[in-house]
Amino acid sequence: MEESRTACLVLANGRIFEGQAFGASGVVTGETVFTTGMNGYIETLTDPSYYGQIVTQTFPLIGNYGIIPKDFESGGVHVSGYIVRSNCENPSNFRCGGDLDSFLKQQQVIGLCGIDTRELTKLLREAGVMNGMIISGDGDEAKKYRAMLSDPARKAQLLARIQAYRITDAVEHVTGSARAVEEDARTVFTESAAYRFVPVKADGTKVNDMDAAMQDGRGKKVVLWDFGAKANIRRELLKRGLEVIVMDASATADEILAQKPDGLMLSNGPGDPGDNTRIIEEIKKLIQAGLPLFGICLGHQMLALAAGAKTSKLKYGHRGANQPVKQLSTGRVYISSQNHGYAVENDSLPEGAVLSFVNTNDGTCEGITYTSMPAFSVQFHPEACSGPLDTSFLFDEFVRLINDHGYFRRFKADYQRIDSISYFAGTIAGTKARLGA
Questions:
Q1: How far is it, in rounded angstroms, from Cα 232 to Cα 222?
Q2: pLDDT by residue (tens digit) across 196-217?
Q3: Is the pTM higher than 0.70?
């Protein structure tokens, strides 16, 4: 007997979206979020930062270019569940290695399609991110929870269970997951150059020659501290000639320093940054050691917490490949790829930490430059894949910082002037965003 392909999403507020099943069958609970990228669904699925989340794609057609293993950001899928308006069953692409439905089945990820994703997205924008449960197929567990929906008292019990869900130990679950797709520097550059995915300078010009791209980074070693790192962070470091040593989230400051690195990359990752108290304490030790630091996303947030700033949860977060950020030192706006539900509070930055980028939609912190130590960080993803390459020059800034620890200190007066001009507006907008105004 063929299994039922009915499925539904039950939100913590009691709202139910009925649709069709694809991918694996069963029941899964997660934090329901949306992402606005028109493409890049492969990278979204394999991005460890989505651990514990049911991801909704706002773009209506997903799966049209199939599954391409070379584009994976890690060794597998990390989303808890996946929701699309329409799943393309017959993909077409010269690099295609299979269809989305089969891939989700193989990865045991439950999918839901055929619902109005616009309505769901509007609901999440108004009410904020909320927990949800996907019930798919006609297995025993699915039948049990479907039966609960028809009885008011039992439905209340189910909603209480959904509301109680919380993402825990997220970093520990995903650290090291990108190692399955690691390649050497020459292979990375050669394959990237075939698609013009080469280093991009601040003025927008591309560096197509391998020797020129790697010149300043050769002979330098960096540790990539992996909190759920996207594979492309390592690739961008390798393209600039750096030797990269990947260390799991369990590493200590002493173990990192024992590698005698010239710099430290703090990676992206999932969950609430404030939950990682041990890592934050280790970052404080590395700050004292004077090691050049570059943080991305979760790494940006934990570096800020180690320096004395505060973080808070956003109403519905920033997820997608089309988020505008303004660099305050130049006034230039870049389009960035983002995936985060928390942000550093603008008005909590300590002395020596200067706001460098802001989100032009809500004024929240998108970057910090530290004038009191050799460190900087950004909330968005300069290694964006799939996404805009506009800000990949920040990896060159990291190489400059490694070669000249005083690189940012020379511009201390300029950064302080910029901060005094922009700080007030950014603080107000950021506060409104956090309060859901």
A1: 15
A2: 889 988 888 999 999 999 999 9
A3: yes
